[in-house]
Amino acid sequence: MLKANFIAFLFVGVLALLASPAASAQEKDKKHKEGKEYKEKEYKEHKDKKDKDYKDQEWREDRDDRTRPQGNGTLGDIIGRVILPPRGTAGPRELRGVPKGHYPPPGECRIWYPNRPPGHQPPPTDCRNLYGVRLEPGAFILHGDRAYDAEYDWREEDRRRPGTVTRDILDILFPRR
Predict the structure, then answer these.
(1) Signal sequence span per UniProt (predicted)?
(2) Would you list the domain boundaries of the chain?
(3) What is the per-residue pLDDT across 149-175, written as a single tens digit (0 to 9) for each?
């Protein structure tokens, strides 16, 4: 009888051990799934916050473009470095670093703001559409393969050296009345 009880006890113990890992595995799977869902939720919240911060930063940068000081050609400028003329000389600023593919097609003009990335620049248009348009400070006009400083007096340059400034640039910056 003792031997039968011992065998029954042993049998129940083995069954308990066999059932226990299955239940434990199910619990582990459940905990793992809950943990995974928690991590996914946490990741999504973090990503949403990061996206919101990025959009806020973009908005601030777009808003501040009008008030941001002019670039000085340092490595911190986004694209299109502005090179100032030597101190004490009167001359236009130079614009360097504009990707060749962003110059307008022949016969068209494009406004270019040095502190904006290429994707945020106004599109090329017929030069006549820009006649008399008020430009934001620091702008350049891309025409052909040249960048004209919109803050420079190109009329005076044309008086000194006739034919060096295209009629389109003069009409955009100094519209006829």
Answers:
(1) 1-25
(2) 1-64, 81-173
(3) 998 989 998 999 998 899 999 999 988
Query: What is the 8-class DSSP label of residue 157?
Result: H
Q: Which two tokens stand for residue 99?
A: 């990707």
Which amino acid, one-letter code, is at 18?
L
- The per-residue pLDDT for range 52-108, each reduced to its tens digit, is 666 656 555 555 444 444 444 444 444 567 777 667 667 888 998 888 889 999 989
DSSP 8-state secondary structure symbol assigned to residue 77: S
Question: Residue 148's closest CA among 160, 159, 135?
Answer: 135
In a 3-state reduction of DSSP, which class is residue 161?
Answer: coil
Name the 3-class secondary structure at 124.
coil
| Cβ atoms within 10 Å, residue 62 | 11
Residue whose C-alpha is closest to residue 78's, from 93, 91, 63, 68: 68
Task: Tell me the pTM.
Answer: 0.52
